[in-house]
UniProtKB/TrEMBL annotation:
Residues 330-450 form the Adenylosuccinate lyase PurB C-terminal domain. Catalyzes two reactions in de novo purine nucleotide biosynthesis. Catalyzes the breakdown of 5-aminoimidazole- (N-succinylocarboxamide) ribotide (SAICAR or 2-[5-amino-1-(5-phospho-beta-D-ribosyl)imidazole-4-carboxamido]succinate) to 5-aminoimidazole-4-carboxamide ribotide (AICAR or 5-amino-1-(5-phospho-beta-D-ribosyl)imidazole-4-carboxamide) and fumarate, and of adenylosuccinate (ADS or N(6)-(1,2-dicarboxyethyl)-AMP) to adenosine monophosphate (AMP) and fumarate. NCBIfam families: PRK09285.1. One of its GO terms (molecular function) is lyase activity. Residues 29-309 form the Fumarate lyase N-terminal domain. It is an enzyme of class 4 (lyase). Its EC number is 4.3.2.2. PROSITE patterns: FUMARATE_LYASES (PS00163). InterPro entries: Fumarase/histidase_N, Fumarate_lyase_CS, Fumarate_lyase_fam, Fumarate_lyase_N, L-Aspartase-like, PurB_bact, PurB_C. It comes from Microbacterium flavum. It holds the Pfam family Lyase_1. Keywords: Lyase, Purine biosynthesis. This is Adenylosuccinate lyase. Pathway: Purine metabolism; IMP biosynthesis via de novo pathway; 5-amino-1-(5-phospho-D-ribosyl)imidazole-4-carboxamide from 5-amino-1-(5-phospho-D-ribosyl)imidazole-4-carboxylate: step 2/2; Purine metabolism; AMP biosynthesis via de novo pathway; AMP from IMP: step 2/2.
């Protein structure tokens, strides 16, 4: 009989890859969510007492600081307390309410205990808490890592801006570019999506059981509860959703996860392209001391960083798509499908962050083999056919050529076969075009036929 192992993390994010994703746990873990819930509960008490509602008096600065310490110093004791209480209540938000009430008694603030969770449904607390934790995780952990990868990519683009390389459209030799320009394309794409993510909203609701402020008005009909709720939510640094059911409708989350998934798709494209460039020999990998590439082939240095990134981006993309497609719908005024789904937000961002970490490492472990790029170009002079037939067309329009079908002429010369430099020069010399055009074409090589590629790098 096999003996049981000691307790082990089921997810590799909490085991093998913990070091790369630990920063997210401060926000997107169960403890991070509960800390935010305590924050919302505490700040709601302070908001109500600041307005002296129901005969309460404003708390002193010292009392407010003591109360805020409940979430600012939230730690192992609170985590254990909540786990024990939830085992009884079977309700996570109710356990948080009891924690705050317990601490109010400890602080001698029993007089305001009934303002804890006042007129709130769980989703008032949750919508604000998720918005806070997701915003903080994105802004302090995920986006900075995306910016690091983009910055590294930008540095490589500038370094290799003039490194001519043969393009491969449909996998076939095509008009040359530069490695710098091709990397700059990814920088441009990532920066655009990053700006969209940075400008996204993080919304919360605070309007009671079905979004109508019914209980609030029953207790204090003269208070402008929608205005007070808006002020409270915006005071947390969030956007306010005034028109909801029991839950905030999660549309901001759908938008965010779709954009993060979009960024992941671009990164996946980057990973597979760099992997291919490595396989072509365009990039050489820097050996890491002591590392093993293959258990049986000692010569190998495998592009594992890019393969790891590729796989984790696929996992993250699948989870983000599930989050977006599930959270967009809630039956009638509320169902619980969103509750268990949202507990996987951290898993989705964890795999995405792990991919970013691998890309960052991988981009730092490659060197451009310019001699390989030049040899590849020199073996594919036929790509200049585009330039020749385009110049001939211009010469025809200018009245300096009587050629009738320049495309067919070059197609017959180059399609499906290799053409050397000397052969192309001889072909150009025999063309019915002006002397300046002939000289321009005769001087052209695959390595110099890169257009504005070098200059385009300045766009990022």
């Amino acid at each position: 009989m096999t003996t049981s192992l000691p307790p082990q993390p089921l997810s590799p994010l909490d085991g093998r890859y913990r070091g790369a994703v630990a920063g997210l746990a401060d926000y997107l873990s169960e403890a991070g969510l509960n800390r935010a819930r305590v924050e919302v509960e505490v700040e709601w008490i302070i908001t109500l007492t600041d307005r002296s509602l129901f005969g309460s008096t404003p708390l002193t600065a010292e009392q407010k600081q003591s109360l805020r310490a409940l979430y600012e110093e939230f730690g192992p004791a609170e985590i254990a307390w909540l786990a024990e209480k939830e085992a009884v209540t079977r309700h996570d938000v109710k356990a948080v309410e009891y924690l705050v009430r317990d601490r109010l008694a400890t602080l001698g603030l029993d007089a305001v205990a009934e303002l804890t969770h006042f007129a709130c449904t769980s989703e008032d607390i949750n919508s604000a808490s998720y918005a806070l934790t997701v915003r903080r995780a994105v802004e302090t952990v995920w986006l900075p890592k995306l910016r690091e990868v983009t910055a590294t990519l930008g540095d490589l683009a500038r370094e290799h801006r003039d490194a001519a390389m043969l393009s491969r459209t449909h996998g076939q030799p095509a008009t040359p570019s530069t490695m710098g320009k091709e990397l700059a394309v990814f920088v441009w794409r990532l920066e655009r999506v990053a700006r969209q993510i940075e400008s996204g909203e993080y919304l919360a609701k605070f309007s009671g059981a079905t979004g109508t402020w019914s209980a609030h008005l029953s207790a204090a009909p003269d208070v402008d509860w929608p205005a007070l709720s808006r002020e409270f939510i915006e005071g947390l640094g969030l956007g306010f959703n005034v028109l909801t059911t029991q839950i905030e409708s999660h549309d901001w989350q759908v938008e965010l996860y779709d954009r993060v998934r979009h960024a992941g798709g671009i990164l996946h494209n980057l990973a597979t392209d760099v992997w291919t460039y490595i396989s072509l020999g365009f990039f050489a990998q820097i050996p890491v001391a002591g590392a093993t590439g293959s258990s049986t082939m000692p010569h190998k240095i495998n592009p594992i960083r890019f393969e790891n990134a590729e796989a984790n981006l696929e996992i993250a993309g699948g989870l983000l798509q599930t989050l977006a497609s599930t959270l967009v719908t809630s039956r009638m005024q509320r169902d619980l499908t969103d509750s268990t789904t949202q507990r996987n937000i951290g898993v989705a961002f964890g795999h995405s962050l792990l991919a970013l970490d691998n890309l960052q490492r991988g981009l730092g472990e490659i060197l451009l083999a310019r001699e390989v790029l030049l040899a590849d170009l020199d073996a594919n002079w036929e790509v200049l056919a585009e330039a020749i037939q385009t110049v001939v067309r211009a010469e025809i329009v200018a009245g300096r050529s009587q050629i009738t079908d320049p495309y067919a002429l070059l197609k017959e010369l180059t399609r499906g076969r290799r053409v050397g430099g000397a052969e192309l020069v001889a072909f150009v010399e025999g063309l019915d075009i002006g002397a300046d055009a002939k000289a321009r074409l005769a001087a052209l090589t695959p390595a110099t036929y890169t257009g504005l590629a070098d200059r385009l790098v300045d766009e990022v």
